[in-house]
Amino acid sequence: MLIWMLIIIIISISIDFVLHFFQLAWIGRYLGYFGTFLIAISFVYSIRKRELFKSGSPKTFLMLHEYLSLVGAVLILVHAGIHYNGHLAWLATIMLLLNVASGIIGKSILRNAAETIEIKNIELSEKGLSVDEIEKKLFLDSITFEIMQKWRIIHIPISLMFTILSILHIISVFIFTK
Ligand code: HEM
């Protein structure tokens, strides 16, 4: 997890450096909006998970959540490097880092769970279930694992805090940059 966090921070600093080098630091302001947009889009996973629509596999949407929020986080970090204009922005950035760290931990828990249910996969295919049915059944099974439930108690409130702080930060920017 630490190595991934380090990679994310190094990529963000490098992008920030390149933008400054070409005197394009102003772009950072808009990267904040774009990063937020990508993270918001990544929540299509939550809608798919609750079966509000049925097309596409939940696994694909989870991957989308992971990658879009990672890219979104990098863009927001570049944005954060440009202008720290108060405690709210700092808090939102810390929450973002905690959010990403907890997300990466959750991903590795799921991967380990997936290895465990590989055995179940073989059993189900021997019972004659189709590949699609097995994938759906095993994916939903894996995320009900007790350890995942405990992990959600951390990831979801952090996400909520991050969302609230980001909204407050955006509102304060609109109020104070008149
Ligand atoms: C700003 C960044 C992020 C936010 C705000 C966020 C938010 C959330 C939320 C609210 C959920 C619950 C979904 C639901 O039950 O409807 C969730 C689930 C999850 N997230 Fe994130 N997340 C972020 C980043 C990440 C990252 C970077 C990863 C992994 C690389 C990740 C991996 C996961 C996983 C594995 C789940 C569990 C899926 C499940 O239990 O259904 N998240 N995330």
Please tag this protein with its features.
7 helices, 178 residues, binds protoporphyrin IX containing FE, single chain, elongated
Question: How would you explain this protein's 3D organization?
Answer:
There is one protein chain. The chain starts with a helix and ends with a helix. 84% of the residues lie in helices and 0% in strands. The protein has 178 residues and is mainly alpha-helical. It has one domain. It is elongated, with a radius of gyration of 19 Å. The chain contains 7 helices and no strands. Bound molecules: protoporphyrin IX containing FE. Residues 39, 46, 49, 62, 65-66, 69-70, 73, 96, 99-100, 103-104, 106-107, 110, 143, 148, 152, 155-156, 159, 162 line the site of protoporphyrin IX containing FE.
Q: How many DSSP-defined strands?
A: 0
Which term fits the overall shape? elongated
Main sheet?
Answer: none
Number of helices: 7
User: C-alpha Rg, in Å?
Assistant: 19 Å
Quaternary structure classification: single chain
**What portion of residues is helical?**
over 70%
Ligand types: protoporphyrin IX containing FE
Q: How many structural domains?
A: 1
Average pLDDT reading? 86
Termini Cα gap: 40 Å
Summing up helix and strand content along with how strands pair, one would put the structural category as mainly alpha
Low-confidence stretches: none
Content of β-strand: under 5%
How are helices and strands ordered from N to C? HHHHHHH
